[in-house]
TrEMBL record, chain A:
Coiled coil: none annotated. It comes from the Bacteria. Residues 71-291 form the ABC transmembrane type-1 domain. The keyword Zinc-finger does not apply. The lineage of its organism: Bacteria, Pseudomonadati, Pseudomonadota, Alphaproteobacteria, Hyphomicrobiales. This is sn-glycerol-3-phosphate transport system permease protein UgpE. PROSITE patterns: ABC_TM1 (PS50928). It is found in: Cell inner membrane; Cell membrane. The gene is ugpE.
TrEMBL record, chain B:
GO terms for molecular function: ATP binding. Belongs to the ABC transporter superfamily. The lineage of its organism: Bacteria, Pseudomonadati, Pseudomonadota, Alphaproteobacteria, Hyphomicrobiales. Gene3D superfamilies: 2.40.50.100, Nucleic acid-binding proteins (2.40.50.140), P-loop containing nucleotide triphosphate hydrolases (3.40.50.300). This is Sn-glycerol-3-phosphate import ATP-binding protein UgpC.
Amino acid sequence: MVERTPILNFVTHVILFLGFLMAVAPFVIVAIASSHNLKDVNDVPMPLLPGSDFWINIKTAWTTADLGPKLLNSFIMATGVAAGKVIISALTAFSIVYFRYPGRTFIFWLIFVTLMLPLEVRIVPTYAVVANVLSPYQAILDVTGLSWLIEKVSGVQVSLSLGLLNSYSGLILPLIATATGTFLYRQFFLTVPDELTEAARMDGAGALRFFIDILLPLSRNNMAALGTIMFLWAWNQYLWPLLITTDQSHATAVTELKQLIPNVGGIPEWNIAMAGTLIVMLPPLIVVVAMQRWFVRGLIATEK
Amino acid sequence: MASITIRDAKKSYAKMQVVHGVDLEIASGEFVVILGPSGCGKSTLLRMIAGLEEISGGEIAIDGTVVNKLEPRERGCAMVFQNYALYPHMSVAQNIGYSLKVAGVPAAERTQRIQAVARTLELEHLLDRKPMALSGGQRQRVAMGRAMIREPKVFLFDEPLSNLDAKLRVQMRSEIRKLHRRLNATSVFVTHDQVEAMTLADRLVVMNGGRVEQVGTPAEIYSRPATRFVATFVGAPAMNILEGTVELDGLSLLGGSRRLAMARAGLPVGTKVAMGIRPEAVRLVAPGTAGALKATVDLVEELGAGRVIYVDLDGAPFSVMTSEAVHPEPGSAVGLKILPEDMHFFSSETGGRLDVFKVSVPEPAL
């Protein structure tokens, strides 16, 4: 039921406008603060009209936090995570929906349960694994006594080691597994009519061929939606990059923002910090604007 | 072109058996229609031939090769689906040519063959459109083109016309028939629409409850239904059935209110039988005419070319189809004349046809 009365229209618009204000106000304050000089930004209350130092602040923030390479790092990480999630969740959902094998439902629920284990919960073991990817295998060898045996026989001490700290793969891989994405794809695949699958089989397409030629093009919108959400999510990751990038060369823009935040007792350069924030906020904004059309279509699903 | 041999084919899901041992021989180039009510296993049987359903028992052979274990693509069948199942993201040309692309046919040859098929189906001007932008009939033609392009040994149709409106259905029906005459490929067509079945089929297979009830030409099925089910399922309006019991010198019908004098031909007294008469075989006469049944008119349905008159025959519903210009008022009395050669008899127990009666019917003393 859609009601259309002038009063209701007015009220809904007021509510919408209030919501808009609440969402946008902090952003506007950040933008205004980033345009003031050191003195104005520390005035209480801060002047709410834009100052004139915007470009200077931006430039200072850019050079102080070395944002160029950091933004590139962030971009590589976020793109990698988003792409990885899109691909891996499409593949898992494909397997779960289109193949009959024992333990299928169990596996689906296993994936689903990982929703309850976000990175923050399992961060210590994850760190341990990333520090040495082969450590579980080392443990197996040690426990079974194989490494002892090998050492006795050949005199070689077995020590497996493959560290991913301070690398893009270390930044990206642990964040790729996604229950949300798998679920999104699963729901979409379930709406694809069976006849389509059968028609493809009659046309001689095998499973992988069907996946690539039919399913993936059909789930374009889903991929765009998932990719956008996951890009934003990965871009905004703080804890994980902070933990595993001990070396500046792989730090991301979001973690480097802290370089700009004034220390206690330091110069309160909030104008610079806000300018840096604006810069770091920009790429996700561009992605959202660019992907918006597909993004919305992917989430509201069925328009066939 | 290929023959299809189905031997004792069975299909069951978990505990439920849906196809109970079907035997069928389809000659090369034949157009066979499988007709039956929904849920009778006709689509399942078709999908077993296609390879989309596993065969639980028995075997299916195409051109003498048992295909039970073969993938759909290895069987040389092409299928047209009920809802067309066109790939929504591909253009018409891509849809038609997809199987060739999968098979690795070079692009130049592919285009050429797509053009040829499109010409046959008059789709040339639509090749760049997406299925979304096509009408139902056009989509149907694209689905057929997709089946044709592979030059399959066997065409399978799974109720392909049921999503079309009545006028288009008639048109597509004759197009399918024409296409079959030109390609002369073995075709199996599944439908629940008896008009479709009658008009298309070289041979008709009537199925019910997972079993084949009768196989024969449309004319045979209509004039000599093998079972009571076939008799009532084929023909519209449905055949009238009057329950009866064999007596010493004839048949007692309608709970004893009518008697049919005839030799009882070896059936023991008390055997329950059913007598069937097609509505179009009954003649309407003036009430009181000698040898006519008296009945009361309930309802008259005007069909334009004729009318169906529903009458009450001693409490039993009975229908008469006539093309004569008679318009009896509801409630008025009419006489019904039935000729002995138009009567069909079925065993009440098995539903099978009983031909024993016809031979010895002396006179319709109904």
